[in-house]
């Protein structure tokens, strides 16, 4: 099971990273806080001081086309906000 799916790189998460040393990740739905903490420490080589998780359910979406209405759902996902220890940082842009 791959725990970390992708990092969240938005304006809000960038600001949290700069001010409060917090970084966001989309994680596997079944992963718990201890697994997320160990995966971040192993992948980025940083010390994690806390993990908060949020589960988002999929939303119902519909659109109207020439052939009629089409309905569906967006995917559900789990987000983790990881707080790093003082003096630690993660640079997502180093491989670009």
Please specify the SSE layout and strand pairing.
Blueprint: E1 4-7, H1 11-20, E2 22-27, H2 33-44, E3 48-56, E4 60-65, E5 68-73, E6 77-84
Antiparallel strand pairs: 1-2, 2-6, 3-6, 4-5
Can you offer a commentary on this structure?
The protein has 96 residues and is an alpha+beta fold. It has one domain: RRM (RNA recognition motif) domain (Alpha-Beta Plaits), CATH 3.30.70. It is built from two helices and six strands. It has a four-stranded antiparallel beta sheet with strand order 1-2-6-3. It has a two-stranded antiparallel sheet with strand order 4-5.
In short:
The chain is of the alpha+beta class and 96 residues long. The protein is built from 2 helices and 6 strands, in the order βαβαββββ.
CATH architecture: 2-Layer Sandwich
In DSSP terms (H or I, runs of 4 or more residues), the helix count works out at 2
In percent, how much strand structure appears in the residues?
Answer: 35-45%
Number of strands: 6
The fourth-level CATH homologous superfamily is RRM (RNA recognition motif) domain
| CA gyration radius, whole angstroms | 17 Å
- Main β sheet profile: 4 strands, antiparallel
What is the highest CATH level, the class?
A: Alpha Beta
What is the CATH fold-level name? Alpha-Beta Plaits
The structure class reads alpha+beta
- SSE succession: EHEHEEEE
Shape summary: elongated
Give start-end ranges of low-pLDDT stretches.
Answer: none
Spatial order of the strands in the main sheet? 1-2-6-3
Helical residue percent band? 10-25%
Mean pLDDT across all residues, rounded?
94
What's the number of structural domains? 1
What is the end-to-end distance? 26 Å
């Amino acid at each position: 099971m791959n725990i970390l799916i992708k990092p969240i790189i938005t304006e809000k998460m960038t600001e949290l990273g700069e001010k409060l040393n917090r970084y966001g990740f989309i994680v596997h739905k079944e992963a718990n806080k201890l697994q997320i903490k160990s995966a971040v420490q192993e992948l980025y080589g940083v010390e994690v001081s806390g993990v908060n998780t949020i589960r988002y359910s999929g939303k119902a979406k519909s659109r109207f086309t020439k052939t009629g209405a089409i309905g569906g759902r967006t995917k559900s996902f789990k987000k983790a906000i990881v707080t790093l220890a003082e003096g630690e940082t993660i640079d997502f842009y180093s491989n670009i």
